[in-house]
Specification:
With 374 residues, the protein is an alpha/beta fold. The protein has two domains: 2-185 and 248-373, Rossmann fold (3-Layer(aba) Sandwich); 192-245, Alpha-Beta Plaits. The chain contains 13 helices and 16 strands. The protein has helices at residues 20-30, 60-72, 87-96, 101-104, 135-139, 160-168, 182-187, 205-209, 234-238, 250-265, 308-319, 340-345, 350-358; strands at 2-8, 42-46, 76-81, 108-110, 119-125, 129-134, 142-148, 150-152, 156-158, 194-195, 215-218, 221-224, 244-245, 273-279, 301-305, 366-370. A hairpin with a 2-residue loop joins β11 (215-218) and β12 (221-224). The model has no long low-confidence stretch (mean pLDDT 93).
Length: 374
């Protein structure tokens, strides 16, 4: 049974040791980093840089604490993410959101290069076949996965599995494009956008939100570049009239997500990855959207484990039966649901955790160790 260490968000004493950064320091001390990371070992601190307008990411102060802890055991950390928009633009977004060399105390790099196609093909499983893993994540010997827990347009829940799977896979490949990159995950096959002209209100939000400028309207007719499109699904999410759709299979998607996570994790030796889930500022949507809504669930705290399945199960257990926050996206629902994230997305997100356990990535059985016990 794996241990999942927990620091609650509530503070009961007005002193630094009881603050969230202070509690994170205690958690990092508790897990004995020397047993995971070696002197001078390059170590990726994998996070999500957010988007222009989406600022509720893992805060730079927390990334700095992870970097400092790694430096404390003489490892050589760097902060990284894979390209989600054009590379140079994404680095600027990271800087705007406070993630830079000065703030986090380590280099900030793109794991799959400025063009998002610097990757290595790896066998993933029966659903995905081969998938393009970002070369930096493929090659680096050790990794800290820092995940902001939230909802997600397709996964329903975005935590460590989503961060490793979608975040460790490149957006495209030099030869096979999106079909063996992140787009393959989004669509599980030859996904195509379907436009319903009768429903379209010509608001052009889909065109505005496309990160690659794939969508164009000519003479009030929708068109997009199938080859260029990464199948991120943002256009379908923002369409107020439901005029855009990208058909998919939710159950296969959850299994494919676990396959991709296994492919990424499989490039590391056992005992070389630690996972941190930040249950703070919990959003109804992913941090890749161009804005951040108010949180739908109150901050819960920070979880740390070396078992990706255990930390994910502990996270969803902690979020279950929580009351929705007022003046949030949950206001339109008349009753308080048992599962807020499912209520928002209608996605069977727990299947990704079940599939990850079946693939041998960890166990749903865990022991929660609260910081007060230290």
């Amino acid at each position: 049974m794996s241990k999942v260490y927990f620091a609650p968000a509530r503070i009961k004493k007005w002193k630094y040791a009881d603050s969230m950064p202070g509690k994170l320091e205690k958690l990092l001390n508790e897990i004995n980093l020397l047993s995971f990371f070696e002197k001078d070992e390059w170590t990726a601190v994998k996070t999500h840089f957010g988007s222009e307008g989406a600022h509720r990411i893992v805060r730079p102060i927390f990334l700095r604490k992870v970097v400092d802890a790694l430096k404390g055991v003489s490892a050589k950390p760097f902060v990284t993410d894979t390209v989600r928009i054009k590379g140079l633009d994404y680095l600027e977004v990271a800087n705007q959101n406070g993630i830079n060399h000065l703030s986090v105390g380590a280099p900030v790099v793109l794991a799959d290069g400025l063009y998002g196609n610097d990757n290595i093909m790896v066998r993933a499983g029966d659903i995905l076949g081969e998938i393009a893993i970002a070369s930096v994540i493929h090659d680096v010997p050790a990794m800290f996965v820092c995940s902001h827990v939230k909802g997600h347009i397709q996964a329903g829940y975005g935590g460590a599995i989503k961060n490793v799977a979608m975040g460790g896979i490149s957006s495209s490949h030099r030869k096979c494009g999106w079909k063996c990159g992140r787009g393959a995950l989004h669509t599980i096959g030859e996904g195509k956008l379907i436009w319903d002209e009768a429903k379209c209100e010509l608001c052009y939000q889909c065109e505005e939100i496309c990160p690659l400028e794939c969508i164009k309207f000519e003479n009030e007719l929708f068109a997009y570049s199938e080859d260029k499109c990464w199948r991120c699904g943002r256009c379908t999410r923002v369409c107020p009239a439901g005029a855009l759709a990208m058909p998919g299979d939710d159950e296969r998607f959850m299994h494919a997500l676990a396959e991709a996570a296994k492919a990424v994790i499989g490039t590391f030796q056992p005992g070389k990855i630690i996972y941190i889930n930040f249950l703070t500022e919990i959003q109804p949507e992913c941090d890749c959207m161009p804005s951040a809504d108010v949180p739908v669930i109150q901050d819960q705290g920070i979880l740390v484990s070396d078992d990706i399945v255990s930390i994910e199960q502990a996270t969803v257990d902690m979020l279950s039966n929580k009351k929705p926050l007022p003046q949030s996206a949950m206001d339109e629902y008349q009753s308080e649901p048992d599962d807020i994230l499912f209520c928002l997305s209608r996605k069977p997100y727990k299947l990704q955790i079940d599939a990850a356990e079946r693939l041998g990535l960890g166990s749903k059985q865990y022991k929660l160790v609260e910081i007060q016990e230290f």
